[in-house]
Amino acid sequence: MFDGHYPRLFRYLDRLSGDPDIAADVAQDAFVRLYQRGSFPDAPGAWLVSVAMNLFRNIQSAKSRRLRLLTPHRVERTLADPPPSPDAAVEDDETRRRVRVAIDRLPERERRMLLMQAEGYSYHEIATALDVREASMGTTLTRARREFRLRYEEVWNAPR
Amino acid sequence: MHLDEEQVQRLLDGELPPVESTRVRAHVAECVDCLARVNLGRREDEESRELLRALDHPLPPLPAHTVVVRARSRRWGWMYRAAAVLFVLGVGGVAWAAPGSPLRALLREVVAAMSAAPSQPAPTPAPADTPVFAGIAVAPGASLLIHFASAQGDGAFEVALTDGAEVVVRGPVGAATFTSGDDGIVIDNSGSDATFEIEIPRGAARVEIRVDGTRVLLKSGAAITAATAVRNGASYVVSLRKAPTPTR
C-alpha cells in the first residue's frame, strides 16, 4: 500500500509545487493522517491526494524558508557526483524551465488533472480527489493536454 | 460513426467498460480515420508525459516505520497533554474548594511577592563549551543564493553534495555572521581568513554561490559549474582570496 502510493503522490506534488522538500513533507503528512484514520478509505489514492492538497494549501499560505541554527557537529559526507557536461546541464535546465512555465499557465483544475493522469491515477480517483465530473474526464484531459503542449510551444518560441 | 474525443482518450487510458472497449477496438481496427486519431492521441500523451518528467526530482526515501512512529507520537502527544491539563484542573479545583484550604492564602502571597519584587537581571548563564564550528541550515527551495559578502585575505569554502534535505553552511565560531532572507543566505565574512564548509543536497534544484557579488559556483540540477574550483576527493574547494590586482 505504502510503496504503491508514496512514489506517485510525491511525484504529483513535486511536479505541482516544483519544490521536492515541500512535496516530501506533505506526502509524509498525508500518510501520517491515513495511519491515524485507523481504516482505509474507499479510494486510498484519491483520499491521499485530497488530504495532501489541503496540507499543500496550508503550506502555501504561510510559505517561508525553514531556518534553524546548527549544532557544531559535522555530518557524514557522501561522494560527490561527477559533474556532467555543461551543455547537457544547460539543456536540462532550460527544458525544465519551459515545462514549468507551460504547466503553470494551465488553469488550476486542468493542471491537477493532467498531473494526476500522468501518474496513472484512474478517472474515478481524479474525480474524487479534485471533486470534478468523471463523465467527461476524457474530453477534459484531451483538451488540457493540447493546452499544455500549446503553452510549451509558446514558451519554446518566445524570445528569452 | 466515428469515435469522439471522450472515447479516444478513455481507450488510451484504459477507462472504457469491457463491452464498450471491445466494440471501440473493433471499430478502430476497421476505421483508418479513428486509428489515426488514436495514434495521434497516444503520441501526444507520451510526449506530454516525457516533458513532465523534466520536472522530477529524485524520490526521497521515506521508510514506512517513520510514518508509523510520527502518527503514534502525534496521537499520544495530544492525549497526554489533554490528560495532564484535566489532571491539573481537577487537583487544583479540589484543593481550592476544600474547606480551610491553604491554597488561596498561598496564591495571595505569591501574587503579592511577584508584584513587590524588584526586577532582577537574568543570571548570566555559565559559559558553555565553545563550539568549533557554527552556522545555519536552510531548505534550498527552488533556488537558493549563498552570498559571501567579501573576498578574504586567505581561506576558502569547500562544497560537498549530500543526501540531506538542507543546505548547510558552517564556519569557525566568530569567523562570520550568517543571516537568511527570502533570497538566501548572506555570510558576513569581512576581515575573516577562515575556511567554510557548505553542504548541498543532491536534489537541490539550483544553488548559486557568490563572493563579493561574483558568481563562483553554480549547482543547477545535477550539474556543478565552478571556474576556479579544485576537486578535493569528494568535494569542491573554491578560494575566497581576493584576485591579485593586475600590475601595469
SS class of chain B? alpha+beta
Averaged pLDDT of chain A: 82
Low-confidence stretches of chain B: 117-131
Distance separating the two termini of chain B? 85 Å
Strand tally of chain A: 1
How is the quaternary structure best described?
A: heterodimer
Biggest protein-protein contact in the assembly: A-B, 68 and 71 residues
Characterization of this structure:
The complex is a heterodimer of chains A (160) and B (248). Chain A is mainly α. Chain A folds into two domains: 1-80, no CATH class; 84-160, Winged helix-like DNA-binding domain superfamily/Winged helix DNA-binding domain (Arc Repressor Mutant, subunit A), CATH 1.10.10. Chain A is built from seven helices and one strand, in the order H-H-H-E-H-H-H-H. Chain A has helices at 2-17, 20-37, 44-61, 86-104, 108-118, 123-130, 137-157, and one strand spanning 67-69. In chain A, helix 1 packs across helix 2 (20-37), helix 4 crosses helix 7 (137-157) and helix 5 (108-118) packs across helix 7 (137-157). Chain B is of the alpha+beta class. Helix content of chain B is 37%, strand content 25%. Chain B contains five helices and twelve strands. In chain B, the strands form two sheets. A six-stranded mixed sheet of chain B has the order 1-4-7-3-12-11, with no helix packed on it. Chain B has a six-stranded mixed sheet with strand order 5-6-2-8-9-10, with no helix packed on it. In chain B, helix 1 packs across helix 3 (32-52) and helix 2 (18-30) crosses helix 3 (32-52). The longest helix of chain B has 34 residues, at 64-97. The chains are: A mainly alpha (160), B alpha+beta (248). The interface between A and B is large, with 68 and 71 residues. Strand 1 (67-69) of chain A pairs antiparallel with strand 1 of chain B, so a sheet runs across the interface.
